[in-house]
Design a protein that fits this description.
The two termini are 30 Å apart. By secondary structure, this protein is mostly helical.
């Protein structure tokens, strides 16, 4: 029950600004799951929250469908590569880089307010969106914390809008789950109840995001970024 409640709050945060893994992963580790199983199980649950958010944004007409048509497969491919690489590379070496990226993300969100561009196709933004989808998708498969935040910041700062990031986040989650399930690192008896919480949280968070717009997204991104930075610095120091 406690893990399902944690998953609900994580799904709400994920739908708005990303970073729900900061809630669920520590909860899984505290529950006694080995790190590898905790990471895989976390993905097995978070996929449903990101799926609910993506469907809701899509139905509300808040997704650039032409951009999503190439961003989704690129995010999926990047995550497949990242999830396979993580099996042979130490994540400890990446922590200082992640801290620097999160600090940069927070600064960008303070300096550059999210602005919405026309829903019409903007060809010059396609290469940037493609690069973001692939690189951050690979990061999600390899390491994970802050993926949703990076996607939102990247799409806002470089593409002018943030909600398309949900489609890429769903793609990277699906790919990571496929790899972790294949390797047998998902405890489905834990992941499925958490999936229900993530799904409900994703619906609630999506409605808050659609009503609150850029202001609530900025506030949540900054809050999540700050929490992630503190956690990673503490982890690095211990």
């Amino acid at each position: 029950m406690a893990l399902a409640v944690a998953a609900f709050f994580a799904g709400t945060v994920d739908a708005i600004a990303g970073g729900g893994g900061l809630i669920t992963l520590p909860a899984l580790l505290t529950a006694g799951l080995p790190p590898t199983i905790a990471i895989g199980t976390n993905k097995g649950g978070s996929m449903w929250g990101s799926g609910a958010a993506s469907v809701a944004f899509w139905r509300a007409g808040r997704v650039d469908r032409k951009q999503a048509a190439f961003a989704f497969p690129l995010g999926f491919a990047g995550s497949l590569i990242g999830a396979n690489l993580v099996l042979g590379i130490s994540k400890d070496a990446l922590r200082p880089v992640v801290i620097a990226m999160l600090i940069f993300a927070a600064v960008v969100m303070v300096v550059k307010k999210p602005t919405r561009i026309d829903d019409a196709d903007v060809p010059r933004r396609r290469p940037v969106a493609a690069l973001l989808a692939f690189v951050i998708g690979a990061y999600d498969g390899f390491f994970g914390p802050g993926t949703g935040t990076f996607l939102i910041v990247g799409f806002v700062a470089l593409c002018g809008r943030s909600l398309d990031a949900k489609i890429v986040n769903l793609a990277s989650n699906l790919a990571a789950v496929a790899i972790f399930a294949w390797r047998g690192t998902i405890a489905w008896e834990v992941a499925l109840p958490m999936a229900a919480g993530q799904l409900l949280g994703g619906v609630v968070g999506t409605r808050l995001a659609l009503k609150g717009g850029a202001r609530i997204v900025r506030a949540m991104v900054l809050a999540v970024s700050g929490a992630l930075i503190v956690k990673l610095i503490v982890d690095l120091a211990t």
